[in-house]
Amino acid sequence: MKQEYTITVHTENHIGLLNRIAIIFSRRKINVQSMNTSPSEIPGIHRFTIVINESEEVVVKLIRQIEKQVEVLKARYNTNDEIIWQELALYKVSTDMIADKISVERLLREYGARAVVIRRDFVIFEVSGHREETERLVKFFEPHGLIEFVRTARVAITKSSQGFHQTLKEFEEKEPGTDRVVENKYLDKNEEVFSM
User: Quick one: which of 7, 14, 140, 174 has the most CB atoms within 10 Å?
Assistant: First the structure.
């Protein structure tokens, strides 16, 4: 049975990785509802947050494919019940329509909206919340002169108290890395190694 899943991927930050991850979805004809990339709590490690509507069996296969990418440290998936998530939306509305027909105070209270820009010709409101909440405000603004609307991709954090940083720490304790650099002993011997 299909349902909404949020896939979280912790990676090293390398050029071309976003494209390779996107290809994994497009080859399987899976529609990505939203994708967000951002730095994580660990310096040098980035976090992809990908939302899809699929069966768990398909999601498990996707995770395996994503983890085959060299730069990927860990990929996991969660249902909406296992995460805390938000999206940010901006609404540009005609100032005249706002002044004439809408009680701004009521709007701010009822929808948790915040005016971020107020100009003579338009006002921009910001709301964060779940998709249903941001879409509700679109429906509210449409008859009142909605000029423009944009919504960000999902940002999500798991409800479990252990984050990726702790998982990485435990891995390092089991398999400690070495700080020593091993030099290639053939580095200065080009003619000896490559002569015919």
Answer: 7
Asked if residue 180 is part of any domain, the answer here is no
What is the rounded CA–CA span in Å between residue 25 and residue 23?
Answer: 5
What confidence tens digit (pLDDT) does each residue in 76-116 have?
999 999 999 999 999 999 888 776 666 777 777 888 889 89
Domain boundary among 83, 103, 127: 83
| 58 and 9 within one domain | yes
Q: Which of 44, 43, 53, 48 is nearest to 17 (CA)?
A: 48
Question: What pLDDT is attached to residue 126?
Answer: 94
Among residues 14, 16, 13, 5, the alpha carbon closest in space to that of 63 is found at 5
Q: Would 162 be classed as within a structural domain?
A: no
Amino acid, res. 193: V
Q: What was the pLDDT predicted at 186?
A: 47
| Residue ranges making up the domain that contains 117 | 84-151
Residues 7 and 55 in one domain: yes
147 and 122 in contact (C-beta within 8 Å)?
yes
What is the total count of domains within the chain? 2
Question: Which residue, among 34, 3, 65, has the nearest Cα to 154 in the 3D structure?
Answer: 34
Q: How far apart are CA 132 and CA 4, in angstroms?
A: 14
Q: Tell me whether residue 75 is in a domain.
A: yes
Q: Where are the beta strands (DSSP E) in 96-169?
A: 114-118, 122-129, 146-151, 155-158
Average pLDDT along the chain = 83
Domain contains 35: yes
